[in-house]
Write a structure and sequence with these properties.
Elements (H helix, E strand, L loop, with lengths): L8 E5 L4 H12 L3 E6 L2 H13 L3 E6 L5 H15 L4 E4 L14 H26 L4 E6 L12 H23 L4 E8 L5 H12 L6 H10 L9 H12 L10 E4 L6
Parallel strand pairs: 1-2, 1-4, 2-3, 4-5, 5-6, 6-7
Helix pairs in contact: 1-8, 3-4, 4-5, 6-7
The structure holds nicotinamide-adenine-dinucleotide.
């Protein structure tokens, strides 16, 4: 059984690559019109073209999630092209591994800017776009929000912040009658570009003797006994966007094989 998203207009930040693109592909296959919003114009344009060639409805818009004016411009373009959105997936995020004893404040501020301020601006503009008719926002945390894995202190802090932002957003939406559900997905480690780099960084930082040992440590901490896949995460996001999740609000959906329990 899959969730039907026919006619649902979903904007996915960071939709040009990785998890965001897989989420767009999954929701497009279930009938959604997807808007890929990203700073990576070339990959986003190509991905939207590929989705249209496969029979879907897809649009790329340039968006830097850290920039308030960029949100306004992107959503104006979407309003002109599609009349608006029904759902927003705040997926864009970056990860920079560092030992806290060596913390680089420039990199740390960048992580917080994209992951926390970018998500908060997404909630702001998502609310403004959605509150007339109601809708859905799905934010993206990580298993790192709830576990203490070495080398990812600032990233983990940023994802804990996303979880808390989600709950305050759900409370404000309810209190002020926006009719917008706000939830978070918390993926486990996915061996894509970001997840693979994280494992490489664990060796570079001297935390594990090899990349394989770092991956092995994650798997051994995971009761389900494997890493996550992009499809695992995309299916959870599609569910939260759909009407099947109509009374699910303010929660973190862990998609991590119980690593973070
Ligand atoms: N890969 C994993 O193992 C993993 C695990 C848990 C959570 N996550 C989270 O999932 C999300 C997606 O991760 P991913 O693995 O697809 O990473 P990725 O690096 O493959 O893709 C991230 C996308 O975000 C875009 N992006 C970066 N900065 C942006 C900005 N300022 N504005 C707009 N777009 C921007 C990039 O261009 C890229 O397309 C992130 O929030 C990440 O923290 C990933």
């Amino acid at each position: 059984m899959t969730t039907d998203l026919t006619g649902t207009r979903v904007l996915i930040t960071g939709g040009a690559n990785g998890l965001g693109l897989r989420e767009a592909q999954t929701m497009s296959a279930r009938g959604a019109s997807v808007i890929l919003a990203d700073i990576d114009e070339r990959a986003g344009t190509e991905a939207a073209e590929a989705l249209r060639a496969a029979g879907g409805s897809a649009l790329f818009v340039l968006l830097d999630v850290t920039d308030d004016a960029s949100w306004v411009a992107a959503l104006e373009t979407v309003a002109q092209e599609l009349g608006g959105i029904d759902a927003l997936v705040n997926n864009a995020g970056i990860e920079i591994s560092d030992l806290l004893i060596d913390l680089d404040p420039v990199g740390a501020r960048r992580v917080l800017d994209v992951n926390v301020i970018g998500t908060a601006l997404g909630i702001k503009h998502g609310f403004r776009s959605l509150k007339e008719r109601g809708g859905v926002i799905v934010n993206t945390a990580s298993v790192a929000a709830t576990i203490a894995f070495p080398g990812i202190g600032i990233y983990s802090a940023s994802k804990s912040a996303v979880e808390r932002l989600t709950k305050v957003a759900a409370a404000e939406s309810g209190r002020l009658g926006y009719g917008v559900r706000v939830n978070t997905v918390a993926p486990g480690l996915v061996p894509n570009a970001m997840g693979g780099q994280l494992a490489v960084d664990m060796e570079r930082l001297g935390l594990f003797e090899s990349t394989d040992a770092a991956v092995g440590a994650v798997v051994s901490l995971t009761p389900s006994g494997r890493l996550a896949t992009e499809d695992d995460i995309a299916a959870g996001v599609a569910f939260l966007v759909s009407e099947d999740a109509a009374f699910i609000n303010g929660v973190t959906l862990s998609i991590d094989g119980a690593m973070g329990m």
